[in-house]
Every structure is written in C-alpha cells, then in structure tokens.
Amino acid sequence: MKQNSSIQMFTDYEGDLPDLNIKVNGEIPIFVTRNLVMFPGILSPILVGRKATLALVKYLEKNPETIIAIVSQKDSNVNEPQEDDIYKTGIYARYVRAFDMPGNYEGDNKTIILQGFGKCRIKEITTKSPYMKGFTEALQEEMDPKKDKEFITAVEDMKLVAKEYIHGSEEVPDDTQLALDNMGNPIIAVNYTCSTMPFPVADKIQMLEENSIKDRLFRLMKVLNREIQFQHLRQDIRSKTREDLDEQQREYFLHQQIKNIKEELGDGDSAPDKKELLEKAKNKKWSQDVAKIFQKEIDKLDTLNPQSPDYSIQVNYLQTMVALPWNEYTTDNLDLKRAKRILDKDHYGMEKVKERILEYIAVLQLRGSLKSPILCLYGPPGVGKTSLGVSIAEAMKRKYVRVSLGGLHDESEIRGHRKTYIGAMPGRIIKNIQKAGSSNPVFILDEIDKITQNTINGDPSSALLEVLDPEQNSAFHDNYLDIDYDLSKVLFIATANDLNTIPRPLLDRMELINVSGYITEEKIEIAKRHLIPKELENTGLDQLEVKPKFTKSALEKIIESYTRESGVRQLEKQINKVMRKLAFEQAMNANLPYTKITPDALEDLIGKPPFTRDIYQGNKYAGVVTGLAWTSVGGEILFIETSLSKGKAGKLTLTGNLGDVMKESAVIALEYVKAHIDTLGVDYRIFEQWNIHIHVPEGATPKDGPSAGITIATSIASALTQRKVRKNTAMTGEITLRGKVLPVGGIKEKILAAKRAGITDIVMCSENKKDIEEIPEIYRKGIEFHFVENIKQVWDFALTDELVEHPVDFTISEDNKVTKK
C-alpha cells in the first residue's frame, strides 16, 4: 500500500515554527534510532550505519518528500531491533539532506539531517525488510501557550537552569548554550532542550509522551534539577577525595621518575610481566585486603632488575597469587536421589559412608551453606576408600584433588617454605587448591596414618591440625603465600589403614567412619559389577563379539585361594591376570581358549592357588585354641598352642614373633590360671615340675595386641586339664589379672575371618554386643555369638568334659614327682 501524498495542515504558529500537527495516511517507512529521541519542530543530524537504515536513506535520497516516522529503540545494544524492541511513541519527519562522513571510503556510514514535525504512535509493523514499515496515527498536542504567562516565565527559568547544567556537564558542547539563548520561540526552546541534553532515553520518552507542551516543560525542569543535584553530589565527592588523588599523583610522578631513570640505565620501560599479571588480577574475586597486598607486591617489580634473581622470585610469588581461586566456588548439585544413585553405582556396600555423605548434602540443601566436615575413612587396603572421593566429587559436581601423605617427613610440604628461601614453593594444600581451580573441591588426604612424626624437619602431622580443624581452616596460613586462605568450604576426606599411628589431637579433629572388609558374596558382586567390565576394557577383550565370562564358582575360588585380603585390590589383579592370558591367546591364535571361565580353567590360566583357606583344625589336641585377630589387611584366625615339658624351673616360653602386648597377655593369662588352678582341678605343684611353652604358628608374621588374652588362658587351661575345646569355636577378648574379659576392636573383620575358616561359635566380651548389633545380618549369618564377662564363663563354654586321646595325667606322687600314665 503506497503513501498518500496529501498532508493535512492544522495549526500554523509563528513563522519560525514548522507545522507540528500533521496527519499521514497509509503505510510509511519507520526510522529506528539508537540513543536518540527526536522532538517536534527540531532539525536534527543523525549518524547512520546499520544496513536497514542505510537502505531507508537511499530511498529517501530518491524520494525526499516522503514523510517517515522516527522512533527510538529501548536497548541500544540490540543491532537489529524488532517490534518489541522499540518505543511506540515517536514523531513524523522529512528528509533534508545526507552526506558521507569524512574519511569514509566505503560509503557504509552517513550523516542524515531530518526535520521533525508532529507526534505519532506506531499502530502496526507491516514490513521489516529492507527497512521497517508500518501504519501510524497522529497524536495531537496543546500548542498555543503564548498567552500563558506562567509558561513564558517557566521557559525563561528553564533556560537559566539549563545554562547551569551545561556549565557543569562535560558532555554538552559549549555552543548549545548560545543556540538556546538565541531561540525566540518558547516551544522550540523546550523541544530543543529536551532533544539536546544527554538525558537517559527513558526520561526523554516520558517527556515526548506528554500531551501538553507545558507539561513537557515541567517534566524537563524536574529532570534538569535532578541532574544538577547529581552534579553537585559528584563535586562534593571529588572535593573530599582530592587529597587522596593528590597523593596518587605524587606516587605517579615518583614512579615516572623511576621509569625515566631505568630508561637511562637501559632497563626498559617497566617490568615485562607486570601487564600480564595485572590482566589476570582484574578477574580475581579476592578481598580488599588481598588486593592491597597484591598491589604492594606487584609495585615491587618496578624496583627490580628483570635479570636479578629477586625478580624471578617475586614474579613466581605473584603468579601463585593470581593462579589461586580466591572466593571462586563451583555450584553444588544437591539432588539427593542423583547423589545416592551415583554412589551406589560406583561402590557396592559402604552404607555408613554413603549415609554420611547424603546427610551432609541434605543439611547443605536445607541450610544453604555450612562448614564442611573432616571425614576419615579407615579400614583395610583395597576396600575403595580413595576411589570413593571421586564418586563424592561427581555426585556433588565438585572438583577432585588428591594428595598422598605416605612417608611425608617435612612440615614445609604442608605449610610451604618462606619465599625468601631459594627454591621456595607453596605447600601441597595450596598447590592442590590451585590445581583444582575452585575453593570448594573434594580433597583426599590419602594414607594419613603413614605420615612421619617429629623429624628434624618439624612435625608434618601437627601442621595438618590447622588444615583439619573446621574452627581454624577458614584462615589457613601458608608460609609461602603469607596470606590467610579460606579452606572452610573444602570437603576434606582422609584415608587410613590403622588409627593407632595417627596422633590423638589429629584424630580428635576428624569424624571417623569405618570402611570394613567385604565378605565373599560382596566381593563376587563387586567383581561382576565393576572389576570384570573394567579389566575387559583394559585388555581389549570388550571388543570381541563373544566376551569371556566368569562363573560364580570361579570368582569364589579366586577370592578364597588366590587372594588373602579384606578388600578387592588383589582380586582385581588376579582378574586382570586371567584377562591378559586370554588376550595373549586371542592375539596368538585368533581364538579364546575359554569363553566360560570355571574353577578348573583357572589353574590352566594363572597357575596353582598360592593360598589355602584358613580352616579350623579341629579339637583333637589339648592346648590348641582358635583365636581371632585383626591385621592391616583384614581379619585372620590364629591358633594358640600350649604344650608342657618336664623341667624343674617351671618356666614360661613364648614363641611365634609376638609383640610386647601379646607377651604381657600370655603372662597375665598364666598368672590367672595359677591363681585359680583349683577351679580346673589340677594340683598347683605341676608348675614346679613342668615348663609351659606357648606358640603362635607362622613365626615369620609379627603378631601383637591384647585380643588373644582369653584364647591364651583357655589354651593353657586345656593343656593342663587335657580337656577338648568345643568344636568349631573361636574367641577374642582381652583379659585382666582378675579374670575380667574386656572388649576389643575389629569385630567385623574377625567375623569375616571366622566365616572363611568355617567357625560356627564365637566367644567375646559382653560389651562387644553393641558392635555385633550394628553389623548387618548378612555378615552374622551362620555364626552364633556367646557373650562373657569373665574367664570362668569362657572355660565353662569352651572346655568340654571330654578328654583328648591319650591324655597326659599329671599326678603328684608321694615323693612329690609328677608321673605320666
């Protein structure tokens, strides 16, 4: 639809005022401006550069009589404004002339001069290409205030206020005031001021939308007064800070003098690394105190020769500062169901650990933020303590870092070295935070029980106290960094095999979670879910159409006969060994010798079993009692053997590579037996004629601990009375001189060892009953527990009335000699 060329004139107000109230029929071009609002009657130059606008200018050059609509866009950053991006209120205008900008050889920038007419409103956008077109409606204004004295007076006052604003503004050209003074028409003066002053576009649109020129004037006055108040406020701030600015100028001139001196000496303009460091520092979220320290340290570069050793030391320090993630945190994923799914997928069992992590996430979800707990996962090797950290990081969508503390002997490895030393560097904590790139990673402190204590280089375990104390680690002090760093959001997880080697103050700061060993059924499940798929991929056998499979009996044989552990690390190695052998056969003969791996196939693939299962040895012999022990690789059964040999001294001999605590248990057990020999029905004079020898087999293996006390006492009692010990029975517990049975630890591991050996009855202290109740039923199945409080109750249950075959009868003759029947 073409534009109607007829323009209806309405009001003619004095000779220098163009027609402001016009009406245009039909579809007309729409000119969209950026950061500019035109007002009625004003002649305005506009810089044009957008493709659509240049196309409109090209059309106007050929059709100069065309009336167009001028509207402003809401957001100046939008390059191709759509209907929703523009204000609907604008003005009609006509093209006057256009010319290229100086130095513009491509013709892609023009300046166009437009004459403004009356107001209009966009009713409908019909076309967007090559330029915007649409239908409009004219908006009438009250344009006859020449007899209104209030209006005329307000215009004169507006000119005075505008003059004050122009003098205080650096954005308004000085000739604006001259142009305003020479305007005789008050309406043009008002519209010119609204159009020219650098007010926000939103304010100008409000002025344009006023239906009365008088109302527009009053709104203009409000905005002018507001901006003048801002100018005064800025002036006050400048006057208050002038002293600081003068001090900065003084420092600037001093630095310039240093710079000139360095140029005279040939040292260059400034430190070559300074610009790069300052660029990195711009994005840092550190506190004002840290920013001041950084600025102080970086200023030192200007006083150092880049060829000097001190310069490289200073640069390394500053690079460490800008590389740290100050107050930068990853966003936690607090979806409990997702976290539980990931933890269950990656690790079988470990219910207590998973429950504790889910509790932490739940509290974090409810509260929003809290200090991270310090967890210590302890248990035998190979149960998945370290790898659990990766799953926790994945579940919470945090970064993961790990540092191994095994054999660490230098305190500076934790706290760092002072930067004045040659080769100084930050400690492992700060270096790994830097490596993580966030201040809230999951941080694994592996093998914390193997850290060296009290060396000539300090005590590393004591240095960890600050790291692992939730009340202190919000201000961890690294000697190299020499600035407090917040570690309170880091989720520290320590791992250990033996708590006895960890110092008590360090142990007190951690929340202990026992990660115990696995029973055979659990190991089979772990092998099926995790180990076998992993090793298939590692050996390339997962690429075969027919993949080898393990039978349940084959896995059970590997667990019982090819490994001796509580975890699954050796199981993984044996499965890998089987896979490697199959991969070799596949590569050599293009054929798998076994696709179904059975117990018989294992010996062909990986040889004879190196271990025999710990099997209960029966109760044929007097003085042989089965005990339960805890070791760093899990639970084991051990056999306490007691024999008597003729001798006048009646001495006690202990063999079997026993530790001091176990030797003391043997002495206490013997003394108790001697004190209560009447209870056993044995003549006390036997100790004057017979020597007692206590032995624990496998002498190459060190053994220590108090938990064999009741086992040794029962062994001595059995040897003296020649009574059989109850079949398929094992026991564990510490003994006192009064015969009281004390509780011991490692109960779950000991139960697993007993099940492997075929034990059906276990004797232990009644105080260990609470430990038994916490162990899942699957571990206790098939075993009956007998809780005792003193050694007499142990003997009543464990010693039967049946004597062994060919018993030794220790009879005291009249000549005080013991005879053997």
Descriptive terms for the model:
single chain, 821 residues, alpha/beta, 7-stranded mixed β-sheet, 5-stranded mixed beta barrel, 28 helices, elongated, disordered N terminus
Question: What is the topological layout?
Answer:
Layout (H helix, E strand, L loop, with lengths): L7 E2 L12 E2 L3 E7 L9 E6 L2 H12 L4 E6 L16 E12 L9 E18 L5 E7 L9 H20 L6 H7 L4 H11 L4 H8 L4 H53 L8 H9 L5 H12 L9 H15 L12 H11 L4 H17 L6 E5 L6 H12 L3 E5 L7 H4 L12 H9 L5 E5 L13 H8 L8 E2 L6 E2 L5 E6 L7 H5 L2 E4 L5 H20 L9 E2 L1 H11 L6 H21 L6 E2 L1 H8 L17 E8 L2 E13 L5 E4 L4 H16 L1 H4 L5 H4 E6 L13 H13 L1 E3 L3 E3 L2 E2 L5 E2 L4 H11 L3 E5 L3 H6 L2 H4 L3 E5 L2 H8 E5 L7 E2 L5 E2 L2
Parallel strand pairs: 3-5, 9-14, 9-15, 10-11, 11-14, 16-17, 18-23, 20-21, 23-26, 26-27
Antiparallel strand pairs: 1-2, 3-8, 4-7, 5-6, 6-7, 7-8, 12-13, 18-19, 19-21, 22-28, 24-25, 29-30
